[in-house]
Amino acid sequence: MIVDRLLERRLVILSGKGGVGKSTVGAALALLAAERGKRTLLVEIDAPLEAARYLEAPASGGKPREVRPGLFTVNLDPRSVMDEYVQRTVRVEMFARRVIESPIYERFFVTAPGLKELMVMGRVMVFEEERERWSRKPKWDFIVVDAPATGHGLSFLKVPLAASLAVPIGPVGANARRILALLRDARRTALVVVAIPEEMAVVEAAWFHDLAVDEVGIECAAMVLNAAHERRFTDAEEAQVLRLTSERAGGRLLREVDLGAALVAARRHIRRRKLTRFYETRLRRALKAPLVSLPFLFAEALGRREIRTLADRLAEA
Amino acid sequence: MPERPPVRGLEAAIGERRVLVVCGAGGVGKTTTAAALALQAALRGRRALVCTIDPSRRLATSLGLSQLSEKPRALPLHKLGVQAPGSLHAMTLDTKRTFDALVERFAASPEARRRILDNRFYQQVSDALAGTHEYMAMEKLLELRTDERFDLVVLDTPPTRHALDFLEAPERMMSFLDTGILRFFLKPYFVAGRLTLKIATRTGALALSLVDKYLGLQFLQDLSEFFLAFDGLYAGFKERAARVFELLRDPGSGFVLVASPAPLAIDEALYFHRRLVERSMPFVGLIVNRLHPDPAEGARSAPRTAARLDPAFAGKLVAVYRDLRTLARAERRGLARLEVDTGVPPVLVPEFETDVHDLRGLLEIAAAIVGGVPLRARRRAAVS
Fold first, then answer.
1. Digit-coded pLDDT (tens) for B263-280
2. Which CATH number is A17's domain given?
3. pLDDT for residue B371
């Protein structure tokens, strides 16, 4: 089972083009992991409202909070992560505050390219390494990171590599190398690339996959084809839809459902189903990872019920 | 609200403005829309260039090309059987090269230039890191704006989580390269190539010792060399950034906001619209892509009962119909919200039968955006 192999890891990073539903997939995967008894942490990066929206929970804060049994969410706001790092490093609180408030800190730490991304990845690594005080067991069994959309998502993955080259010595360089080692450790970490059945999402998934695998050295354990239009009619029924359309069949199916209108919807469904199959084939050819397909959800807004549906579908994958 | 056709502002902008910046959240079809706007301008006799900064080459995809380069490439409109009095060029931005060119242009001496280009820190930051793309896009815009070959530049912006990172990038970059504090911070202590902590303020010393402790001296030296080498560039950069802002606010420029009808995308569009207004940026129009059709619209309401169908089949038909209606109605509520809050009626682009990823598909979108450009050839379905 694809999902079982995913759940064997400790850290799963989701990536994909903007708008493909990384956050819904992340919420569903985290929910499933928690239900399988894993103490799960869903990490959002500078997006406190996404998991909240989908799990119908309060907005994620800077500290992990349990929103369902065994399921915690946390939002990593890069600036706060950096401030927290300084506070931990400079133990005297008065000094720490002065550093954080100083213009040098503001200009240097906050605007230095890549430093924020590195800090955020470092924080994820700290979660992964966290141990219970007495038992020394890992505090988190499963961590899902909902990475920013591809463009910036790649920065997040590439920064540890860039930093380990640019900063050959010192604790930051050492940390960058530790983060990189975690990303490259296929027993602990996996990348999941998310796409939808659309040209650009598929092209971008393949592009991202190649860069992440070849340059960063992370293993892609699965790809998710989200918002897939699944077959609803048999072949004979599809043929009948087309025939009734060409006959301009009319009348009422129900009091409020016109047959002509229903046929418009049915034809659209058939086209989308075929497009889905077309892009699924494309994805399978472009990426070597196993593919999980999740259905398009016709809902007013995505909430707990829809995430439940997706989690159930993941469980079958 | 005064009655006014929604396309007017946008249509006028396509005909008159010299720069159009296309922005919106990721996944809403920004790149395709940027290409369609440029195509529409070409159809109206303008010499248009569409430029993307996206590293994943999506513009190439939507133009049906395998590759795009830094060099603007002309697209063969005549092959489509379309009489375009203007022209359409497309290009993609190479962030590192633009940065390099900037360094070459402003470096005080050949020696300084080499010091920067060979600097390890520079080699890392000038590439794929957040913020650099956006800044370099702005830089490229200045250059293209004065290119005699084009009278309209359509700029596709990078997919950022918060779309306005893009607007703030030049400021952030400037603040990073700012002459005052960074030079005060670095220069006196590093010229000798070693670190001394005799800084006037204790906090400054603490911050600096933190930098040393956590980034290492080697990195600091690379960094200080980098900034020292940049010494002569500050003035040039600052002046360029100021000109970018002038250019963006210029009445000859316009921001086109792109959204999809999903609730999240509508929220982001509203947020971005507010920010544009706050910053007095010239907003020219709102485009909503991939609107799902409402099957009930235009349905023939025959009073009679439909011919008898197999109940299971009829049940599926009803379910498919209801699903699409749910979606369509939710989207129309979102659109209403968008119009009320922005005061601008959005231009609606329907979901097309197939995915748009070639010039012919772009024509359909271009036509949907302003209406009225006849299509000679119908698009062949990509899959059957």
1. 878 888 898 898 888 888
2. 3.40.50.300
3. 66
Q: Is residue A250 part of a domain?
A: no
> In sequence order, what DSSP letters do the residues of B304-326 get, joined into one string?
SBPPP--HHHHHHHHHHHHHHHH
Instruction: Decide: A143 and A44 in contact? Cβ < 8 Å.
Output: no
Please tell me the total count of domains within chain A. 1
- Model confidence over B149-196: pLDDT tens digits? 999 999 988 765 554 555 666 666 666 555 444 554 444 444 434 444
Residue A310 lies in a domain: yes
Of B207, B222, B316, the CB nearest to A105: B207
Q: How far is CA B373 from the centre of its chain?
A: 25
Token pair of B137 as six digits: 């896009």
pLDDT at position B169: 62
Residue among A102, A156, A257 with most chain B CBs within 10 A, to mutate: A257
A305 neighbors A27 (Cβ within 8 angstroms): no
Q: Which domain holds residue A97?
A: 2-232+289-316
Contact B334, B262 (CB under 8 A): yes
pTM for the full predicted model: 0.83
Of B40, B51, B48, B45, nearest in space to B359 by CA: B40
Is A257 contained in some domain? Answer: no
Domain range annotation of chain B: 8-167+245-294+308-370
Task: List Cβ neighbours of A133 (8 Å cut-off, separation of 6 or more).
Answer: none
pLDDT of residue B189: 44
Q: B146 — contact with chain A (CB < 8 Å)?
A: no
Residue ranges of chain A whose pLDDT lies below 70: 89-96, 98-100, 102-114, 149-155, 166-172
B-chain CB neighbours of A177 within 8 Å are none
Tell me what the pLDDT averaged over chain B comes to: 75
> Under 8 Å CB-to-CB from A112, ≥6 apart: which residues?
B176
- B288-330 residue pLDDT tens: 999 998 988 866 666 677 678 899 999 999 999 999 999 999 9
Chain A residues in contact with B331 by the CB 8 A cut-off are: none
CA distances from A17 to A8, A194, A203, B121, B158 (A): 26, 8, 9, 29, 11
> Considering CB atoms only, which of B57, B296, B320 is closest to A269?
B320
**B 68-107 residues with CB < 8 A to A:** none
CATH topology of domain B8-167+245-294+308-370: Rossmann fold (3.40.50)
φ/ψ region of A21 (left if φ > 0, alpha if ψ in -120 to 50, else beta) reads left
DSSP 8-state symbol, B80: G
Chain A residues closer than 8 Å to B127 by CB: 162
| Most A-contacting residue of B215, B230, B266, B384 (CB-CB within 10 A), to test interface | B215
Which residues of chain B does A170 touch, with a Cβ-Cβ cutoff of 8 Å?
212-219
| Strand ranges, E, within chain A | 11-15, 40-45, 65-68, 71-76, 142-146, 189-195, 220-228, 252-254, 257-258, 291-295
Q: How many helices (H) and strands (E) does chain A have?
A: 13, 10
Put residue A17 in one of left, alpha, beta given phi > 0 → left and psi -120 to 50 → alpha: beta
